[in-house]
Amino acid sequence: MAAVPLLLGHRGARAIKAVSENTLPSFDLALEHGCDGFEFDVRRTADGRGLICHDPKVGKLNVCDVTSSQLPHCPLLEDVLENYSHRGFLDIELKVRGLETAILAALREYSPQRGYVVSSFLPNVIMELKARSGTVSVGIICDSPTQLARWRELPVEYVIVEHGLVSSELIEEIHAAHLKVFAWTVNHPANMQKLASWGIDGIIADDTKLLVQTLRTAQPS
Predict the structure, then answer these.
(1) How far apart are CA 101 and CA 42, in angstroms?
(2) Strand partners, 94
(3) Which pLDDT belongs to residue 219?
(4) Phi/psi at 140 (nearest 5 deg)?
(5) Domains along the chain?
(6) CA dihedral 120, 124, 130, 132 (to 10 degrees)
(7) CA 14, CA 20: separation in Å to the nearest integer?
(8) Which element (helix H / strand E) includes 50?
C-alpha cells in the first residue's frame, strides 16, 4: 500500500453526535482520535467576520444578516487558527465570497505550521485569493463531473473531490500536474483502503475513529 494519506475530520469529528460539528470540541476530538487535522466551514457575518458554520442559517438567523456577537456559540475563524495552527492540517472551506481579506489576514497572524488549504466550491473565490496572494495554498472542491473537468483551468494546489468521482487515473492525472488530491466524505473502510492504495493525498471522513483505525492500525497508540 502507498504511504498513509493525510487523515482529516469532516467538520471535526462529525460522527460523534454528542458534540456539535464545526466547534472547537469537535475539532479537539478529531485530533484526539488520531487525525492529522480537520476540515471546517466559514461564512461571512454582517460585520465582516468569518464565522464557523456550514449552513446559511443558524437557527432562524441568516448568518449574512447578523453580527458575530449575535451567534456567540459559533467560533470565529481567528479562534480556530489561533488554537490549531500548530496542531494540525487545516482545510478551511470558504462557503461564500467576501472572506478573502479576512482569511489572508488570519493566515498572516496565525501561520499554520502543519499545512493548510483554503478550499471552496466557488472558482471566483479561488481566483480572488490568488490575485491577492501568490503564496496562499488553495483548492477547488468538486462534486460533479462538470465541475471536476475545470480543475485544470484554475490556479490551485489541491483538487478536493467527492469520493464517488475519484479513480486511480484521476489521481495519476492530478499528480502529473504536480497537485494534490483529497477525497470527501469517505465513511466506509473499503473505500478508505482503496483510496489509500491509489495514492490519494488526503481523506476527509465524518467517522474519525474509523478512519484512523482503518488506515493506522499498525501504528503505536
Answers:
(1) 13
(2) 42
(3) 45
(4) -95, 135
(5) 6-215 (3.20.20.190)
(6) -120
(7) 7
(8) strand 50-52
Q: How far apart are CA 101 and CA 98, in angstroms?
A: 7
Cα 70 to chain centroid, rounded: 25
Query: How high is the mean pLDDT in each 10-residue block of the chain (221 residues)?
Result: 85 97 98 98 97 97 97 97 98 98 97 97 98 97 96 97 98 98 98 97 98 78 39
**Polymer length in residues for the chain:** 221
Instruction: Look up cell 493506522; give the residue.
Output: 216
Query: What do you get for the CA distance between the two ends of the chain, in Å?
Result: 21
Query: How far, CA to CA in Å, does 10 sit from each of 13, 37, 39, 76, 203?
Result: 6, 9, 5, 17, 9
Q: Report if pTM > 0.90.
A: yes
In 81-144, beta strands by DSSP E? 89-94, 116-120, 138-142
Contact 196/2 with Cβ under 8 angstroms?
A: yes
